[in-house]
Every structure is written in structure tokens, then in C-alpha cells.
Amino acid sequence: MTVIQANHIKKSFGSLAVLKDISIEVREGEVLAVIGPSGSGKSTLLRCLTQLETIDSGDISVGGLQMAATADGGCRYADAAELHQIQLMTGLVFQNFHLFPHFSVLRNITEAPVHVLKMPRAQAEQKARELLLKMNLSDKADDYPYQLSGGQQQRVSIARALALSPRVLFFDEPTSALDPELTGEILKVIRDLAREKMTMMVVTHEMAFARDVADRVIFMDQGVVLEEGPPDKILVSPKNERIRAFLNRFGEDTWKK
Description:
globular, 5-stranded antiparallel beta sheet, single chain, alpha/beta, 6-stranded mixed beta sheet
């Protein structure tokens, strides 16, 4: 089953065309890795799929609900109530954590379930503690973000996204702000979620991760999808010379083993 369907998406900022006729789908239970050079439109695509940006034209549906559609030369979004429904089906983990610095770890995770889902606080806290156990952070519930390492903060942000029980989880380069040792912590969490068949779309520069965990890989460059397919096809034997040149920068011996 397709959870996210985006067709012919276009997005410009002024005269700069960032997304140029992008079409993708995310299927239930799969991990879709999005790779490509900086400035290729990867993060903008995620922001459009999670309603942080509006598209200029194209169609987007999430969980069978139409978020945006283009007809008669104009792009129209669903009404506010339906957009809210759609938003609850998606979770986004940012590069730089975006935790509330004045809230404890526990409150960072429970705030949205209590105020958005109207979940009783006791129930929200129980779920938050279960997620912290899953993230190996049970002893950090009463800490504040400044007391945590970068890897721990990112694991809290993943728990916060999971607290709303989204159908699909988006990651925007979740390890880019971390050193190599802490990167491993986050990739392990995502690998564990993949084993549980969590539907995920991951923008990443971690080629070994994309090879080992993704079901499909898409390569973006200059606002278009140049190629997509299984990791063995895109990362080992891509047809496009631009993709081969990009992958060579990472050093084959490091991630093709």
C-alpha cells in the first residue's frame, strides 16, 4: 500500500526553481533513502511533504487523503481540518533536534500527545517512558536538553516524533550535526525501527546505511530525481554518470564492502 504519493511536484523560491517535476511514492513498511548533493532539493521535498512548505503545483496525498492538488492552473490545499488529520500521520526528525530547551526530556515528548491528541497526561507519560526505554534513555526523563549529548538529544527527538504514532516518519539528515561516534547511535535506532517495519523516508549522506537499511534509494540533483531503485542498483551500478561521480566522493572501499 502506498502511504505517500507525490506527483509532478514543483517548488520555487522567487526565481530559483528548487523542485522541478518531482514524482515519488513511499510504500507502507518500507525505508526510502534520499541521497544527492547539497542543494539538490532533498530537504525542501521533505518540508513540502510535511506541510512546512507549500508547493507551487503538483499533487500530494498522504494515507489516502488528498493534501494538495493542481487543477485549472492552480494548486489547492485541503481544508484546515483535513490538513491537521494528514499532519498527524507524519512525523519529522530534524537535523538539529529542535527540542524545547526549557522543558524536561519527558515533557518534550508528552507535550504534543497531551495538547494535540488530547491524551491524558498519565497515559502520555507512560508512552513517553516506554519510548525512552526503547531509545536506551530511561534515566534521562527528568534531564534537560543541555544536559544531553547530541546523540541523546536526537534520540529524544525521535521519541518525540514517535509519540504521536505517525504512519510515516521523515528524517532530514539526522546525523549531520553529530560526530562519527554519535552517528552510530542514531543509525542503530533507525535500523531497529526498520526491523519493526516503520515506514520511513530518510534524507542521508550515510551511504553504508542506505545500502544496508533502505528498500529503495532515490538520487536527486538540481531539483529532479535522476534515478531510483534498490540499493544494489543505485549504489553499486548506477546508470547515470552524475551518480557515479557523486558516489566516488565517499570512497568505494568504505561503504561498498
